[in-house]
């Protein structure tokens, strides 16, 4: 059975590490702001195992004028479970959370390879691609909600 619920920052690491930081130490899975009260983490469970994660941070991007902005980070599904519709469920959960918080805009830095995934969810790229050291080319993407 698949279900999603809110988890602690450290519980995301079992998915963040193999998917987003392969070969890197577990400390590299910690993101600034992970433990702030304004940050929320969600785990997608298959039975009792977390197989997908997403985190939502209350972070303003100075390039956008909307007041209530949230940033998605650490979006990942274990490789074996990708392309089964689970990533969509995680983004929708994050969107639902932001709506509940009266957020107006969701933005994030998307890996180039994930841009088509987010486009299917109606996120748009903004500006030119940029490099994040050791990870690769990214685009800022956003959606008003
Ligand atoms: C990107 C990621 C989170 C998507 O999760 P997922 O569970 O594989 O995605 P879904 O199965 O929900 O995909 C939804 C749709 O997007 C498509 N899609 C997913 N990943 C895609 C990709 N990389 N390129 C093109 N289309 C993609 C799916 O085919 C599906 O299309 P459909 O509705 O026509 O069938 C997941 O593949 C992942 O963890 N990738 C590695 C880490 C990563 O890149 N994270 C994002 C960092 S910004």
Strand-helix topology:
Elements lengths: L1 E6 L5 H8 L19 E7 L2 E9 L11 E9 L8 H15 L4 E7 L3 H6 L3 E9 L3 E9 L1
Parallel strand pairs: 4-5
Antiparallel strand pairs: 1-2, 2-3, 3-4, 5-7, 6-7
The site of coenzyme A (COA) has 19 residues, from α1, β4, α2, β5 and α3.
List keywords for this structure.
39% strand, Acyl_CoA_acyltransferase, single chain, 145 residues, 7-stranded mixed beta sheet, binds coenzyme A, GNPNAT1-like, globular, YitI protein
Explain this structure.
- This protein is α+β, with helices and mostly antiparallel strands and 145 residues long.
- The protein has a single domain (2-144), classed as 3-Layer(aba) Sandwich (Aminopeptidase), CATH 3.40.630.30.
- Helices cover 20% and strands 39% of the residues.
- It is built from 3 helices and 7 strands.
- A 7-stranded mixed β-sheet has the order 1-2-3-4-5-7-6, sandwiched between helices.
- The structure holds coenzyme A.
- Residues 19-20, 75-77, 82-88, 110-111, 113-114, 116-117, 120 line the site of coenzyme A.
Structure annotation, total helices = 3
Estimated helix fraction: 10-25%
CATH superfamily: Gcn5-related N-acetyltransferase (GNAT)
Count every beta strand, where a strand is a DSSP E run of 2 or more residues. Answer: 7
Ranges where pLDDT stays below 50 over 5 or more residues in a row are: none
**What sort of overall outline do the alpha carbons produce when their principal axes are compared?**
globular
Q: H/E series, N to C?
A: EHEEEHEHEE
Mean pLDDT: 97
Oligomer: single chain
Distance between the amino and carboxyl termini: 29 Å
CATH architecture: 3-Layer(aba) Sandwich
Largest sheet: 7 strands, mixed
| Lateral arrangement of strands in the main beta sheet | 1-2-3-4-5-7-6
> What's the CATH topology name?
Aminopeptidase
> Which ligands, by name, code or SMILES, are bound?
coenzyme A
